[in-house]
Amino acid sequence: MPRKSSDPTFDSQCQQTLADEFNAHFSSVGEKTYNEVKINIDNADTSQVNQDKLNKRVRFKPKSITMYDLVNIVKNLKNSNSVGHDDISLKYLKDSSEVTFSYILVIINTSIQTGIFPTQWKEAIVKPLHKSGDANEPSNFRPVSLLPILSKILEKAVANQLVTFLEENNILSNCQHAYRKNLSTETALLKVVEEIYEAIENNEISIVVSLDLSKAFDTVDPKTLLDKLNEANIDSFWFDSYLHGRMQSVKINNIVSQTVLCPDTVMQWSKTQYFRRNLLVFATNIVIADTIVYLIPTLVVIVKAIITIQIT
Length: 312
Prior knowledge:
This protein is of the alpha+beta class. It has helices at residues 15-26, 29-42, 67-76, 90-95, 97-114, 149-168, 185-201, 222-231, 237-243, 274-283, 295-311; strands at residues 123-130, 141-146, 205-207, 247-252, 255-256, 260-261, 290-292. It has one domain (12-173, 218-287). It contains eleven helices and seven strands. The strands form two sheets. Strands 1, 2, 4, 5 and 6 form a five-stranded mixed sheet that branches. α5 packs across α6 (149-168) and α8 (222-231) packs across α10.
């Protein structure tokens, strides 16, 4: 049987129009959500980093990488036939490593040293993937961004250093299991079950509150994220350049929309962009956990905590 197409169905005479409409939708949906909650965000206290964990003498700033680092980064990237707007594939880079890697290393280290993320590497081609419902409705599709492979290599070069800094200095919450080595949804579930069993043995009552935050990542503006990084003794100069000035176009079959400048609240999500997710999880890390002996007082505390989250 032929593979089910994930592309939208449409009149062939309207292909260019539809691609442009998808691009307008994807580049604005996050900003609309952000504007709805912007007042609460502006009034919120986003300071949540445990200052006791921070060594004020240690400050993170990305450092230049070696050829050995570059080779390992490319080697560990998941093989894919997808290419960005530059049409450079991972396979091509691996096959041409003896010729191209020395130049790539210079570009990457220049970006790290100057704090400037290459503009051409910020441009994404977005593929709409159908979720469910009417295939002519943009809201029934989710965007997957195809970014230049070189941008992924640069991201990984900085991400490896950042993750090491966060882990070695115990800056991340012990309750965060997402996007961390040897941790997952399974380990998070095991932790919750373990604490519930322990509470039962101690004749205590456990309350679990699960929250689904609509467009959670899209409502974290770059300023808030950069403030959080600075709060954690992370030099935000390179990240400022990395987050701003991103562009995108939508491709449906062989039709490509016009390229537009993305609002700062729009993140370009590809299947491999764990770096951005790590940054945003770090910025939005909120934990509510409680095991109690007296039910009513703690219910009041939990309700107040949920109200606080709605406000902030």
